[in-house]
Each structure stands twice: as C-alpha cells, then as structure tokens.
C-alpha cells in the first residue's frame, strides 16, 4: 500500500514539475519574442514593462527585471509601472523603495487594491503601524467593492484568474491588517481580521501572521488559542523559538509549570544566541526560573537544594545576558534566601533596589537587618 501511495505521489509531483516547466518554457519564448519587439522599437515602454513581468516567470535575474522596469519608467510616467516596481521591491523586502513607488503611483491616480496593499505592507514593515491600518483598510474596501459589484467576475470563466488574484490580495490584506492591530495591542481587532483572513483562504500560512495571532490570543487571555496558533507555526517550522516561548507562557498561565519549563527549554534551544537575541534569551531563562520557583514552592516534598541551585543558575544566565533588569536580581535574591545564603540574597535585593525595584526594600527590611 505504501509503495502504491509513494508511486501516486511521485506521479503527481512529476506532473506538477512538468506543468511548471512548460509554463516556464512558454514564458521564455514570450520573453524572447518581446526582446525581438524591443529591437524593432526600442522606445515602446510597454514592451519593457511586459518583458519585466514575463522575465520574473521565466526565471530571469532580478537585475534584468529591474532594469526593464526602470527603462519603462524612463520612457513613460505610467502609474502601473510604479506599482509593478513597488511590487518588485516588496518581494525583495526593500520596503522603503516600495513605499516611495506605491505613494507615487497613487499621486498619479492609481487607486487599486493592489497599490494600497503594497503601501500597507511597506508601512507595516517600516513600523508605520497606524498608517498601515489606513492603507490596508482602503485596499480591503476597494477589493470587496470590486468583487461585489463586478458581476462578470462571478460569471465570466475567462476572468477566473483575475478573481483568484483579487482573493489572494484580499487575504494578504486581512493578514497584514491583523498584524498591524496586533502590534498596536488592539487584539480584538487583530483577531477579527485574522478570522476574516482564514475565511478568505483556509490554506493561507505565513509565520509572522500566526505568531501575531497567537500573541493576540495570549493578550486576551485565550491561552488555548495561543497554543493552537503557536502549534500551527511549529508544524511548519519546528525551530521557532518564539512559538515555543508563547506556548511556555500560555502553559504557565494555565498552571502547567512543568510543561511551561519544557517549552522554555525548547525556546532557548531554538533561539540563536547572538547580539540581537541576548535580551530575548535572557527573558526565556528568567521565565523558566519563575516557573521553577512556582513549581518548587508548590511541591509538597522536602526542600531540594539541587533544584534551587538549578533555579539560581538560570537566573545567573539571565543576568549575564541582560544585567539591567531589577526583577532578575530580586528573584535570584529570593532563591538565595531559600538556600540560606542571606548575604548574597540581600546584595541582590540591594542591586534590584538600585535599579528601581521598590519591593526589594520590603525584603531587605524583613530579611537583611537581623
């Protein structure tokens, strides 16, 4: 049975590969045909524009594609050329240039869902969250109006590709708008748009979107939802440290302390320890230590020195990675008190107080002046 299944998968894979190869070959032929047209008429901007679009599907180098778009723009100031270049820049994650071209296309009178989607995407990735909300909302309004009012989209089979593209763009807009609201901590609006995204396309997946979805669920106290969408990320990327951390926090809130510790271990394991991640990894060690403390406090057994030494070691790592957070010193001070190391514990309380943690002085008065 397994061999039959494998054989069927192989047939489907070969068919899809063959179809893709045929499409690419057709685009290469079309690219060559447009190149011949350009030789005959080197000042026809549309031919450069079309060749750049075909070139992408024919597997041409990015430099070649961009050169054609730039040449088309140099010959004619058409808004559709700027939208096309904005799309190219967006694909290359050059959001500043994508933003400039999208804005210029709009100034030239181009008001399609696609251009506002590109604008919103660039604004989102550049941290211009409020602006991205406006742009994505405008894009959704334009696309929905077009789908609802253009009846031939529903009935004309020749326009099926156009309808599919509109639906894909609409899905992307809901996803982007959800991310923007999530980053603005407007979590109910974020989840509404993520649900609209899912209704638009149940097969849609983008890691950042599902991480934001999980995070918004977490903020609203829906810890099962947070784990659900974190698991979706992990199904596609088993090395997502953030997804493990979101699960760890959710399990902590559900008082599954052992499960939370295990998730934070995986978060630490799957987060590269580089200069960009020092604070993040420190947080994971600290959260793991807090769960260890909660677990050991709830333990009905005898006090275990080894467990508390392991807890202190986690806090040592957190402090080494990020020595400016008073909470780290305070919690280490509490752990050291439990280990009867009064002097070191009280020095940690003092350091926490220096860094602005007022509660530390309550502990100093109670435990350190005898």
Write structural notes for this entry.
By secondary structure, this protein is mostly helical. Among the domains are: 18-76; 78-204, Alpha Horseshoe (Serine Threonine Protein Phosphatase 5, Tetratricopeptide repeat), CATH 1.25.40.10. The chain is 79% helix and 0% strand. It has 19 helices and no strands. The chain has helices spanning 2-40, 45-57, 62-75, 79-91, 95-107, 113-125, 129-149, 152-155, 160-183, 187-200, 207-219, 223-236, 241-253, 257-269, 278-298, 305-321, 326-338, 342-354, 359-367. Helix 4 (79-91) packs parallel to helix 6 and helix 15 packs antiparallel against helix 16. The radius of gyration is 28 Å and the shape is elongated.
Give a nutshell description of this structure.
The protein has 370 residues and is an all-alpha fold.
Layout of secondary structure:
Blueprint (H helix, E strand, L loop, with lengths): L1 H39 L4 H13 L4 H14 L3 H13 L3 H13 L5 H13 L3 H21 L2 H4 L4 H24 L3 H14 L6 H13 L3 H14 L4 H13 L3 H13 L8 H21 L6 H17 L4 H13 L3 H13 L4 H9 L3
Output the structural class: mainly alpha
CATH topology label of one domain = Serine Threonine Protein Phosphatase 5, Tetratricopeptide repeat
What is the element string, with H for helices and E for strands? Answer: HHHHHHHHHHHHHHHHHHH
Oligomer: single chain
- The gross shape turns out to be elongated
Annotated CATH homologous superfamily of one domain: Tetratricopeptide repeat domain
Please tell me how large the radius of gyration is: 28 Å
């Amino acid at each position: 049975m397994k061999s039959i299944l494998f054989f069927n998968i192989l047939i489907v894979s070969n068919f899809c590969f063959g179809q893709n190869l045929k499409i690419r070959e057709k685009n290469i032929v079309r690219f060559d045909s447009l190149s011949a047209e350009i030789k005959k008429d080197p000042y026809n901007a549309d031919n450069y524009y079309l060749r750049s679009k075909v070139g992408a599907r024919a597997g041409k180098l990015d430099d070649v594609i961009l050169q054609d778009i730039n040449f088309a723009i140099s010959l004619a100031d058409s808004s559709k050329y700027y939208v096309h270049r904005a799309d190219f820049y967006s694909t290359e994650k050059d959001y500043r240039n994508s933003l400039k071209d999208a804005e210029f296309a709009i100034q030239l009178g181009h008001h399609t869902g696609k251009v506002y989607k590109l604008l919103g995407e660039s604004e989102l990735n550049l941290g211009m969250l409020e602006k991205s909300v406006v742009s994505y909302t405008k894009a959704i309004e334009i696309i929905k109006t077009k789908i609802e009012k253009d009846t031939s989209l529903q009935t004309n089979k020749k326009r099926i590709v156009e309808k599919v593209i509109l639906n894909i763009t609409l899905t992307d807009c809901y996803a982007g708008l959800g991310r923007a609201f999530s980053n603005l901590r407007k979590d109910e609006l974020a989840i509404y748009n993520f649900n609209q995204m899912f209704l638009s396309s149940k097969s849609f997946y983008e890691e950042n979107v599902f991480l934001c979805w999980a995070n918004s669920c977490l903020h609203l106290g829906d810890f099962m939802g947070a784990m659900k969408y974190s698991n979706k990320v992990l199904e596609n990327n088993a090395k997502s440290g953030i997804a493990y951390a979101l699960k760890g926090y959710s399990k902590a809130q559900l008082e599954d302390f052992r499960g939370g510790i295990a998730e934070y271990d995986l978060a630490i394991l799957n987060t590269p320890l580089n200069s960009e991640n020092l604070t993040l990894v420190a947080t994971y060690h600290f959260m793991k230590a807090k769960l260890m403390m909660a677990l050991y406090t709830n333990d009905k057994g005898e006090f275990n020195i080894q467990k508390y030494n392991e807890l202190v070691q986690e806090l040592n790592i957190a402090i080494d990675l990020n020595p400016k957070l008073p909470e780290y010193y305070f919690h280490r001070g509490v752990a050291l008190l439990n280990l009867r190391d009064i002097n070191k514990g009280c020095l940690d309380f003092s350091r926490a107080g220096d860094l602005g943690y007022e509660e530390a002085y309550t502990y100093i008065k109670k435990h350190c002046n005898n």
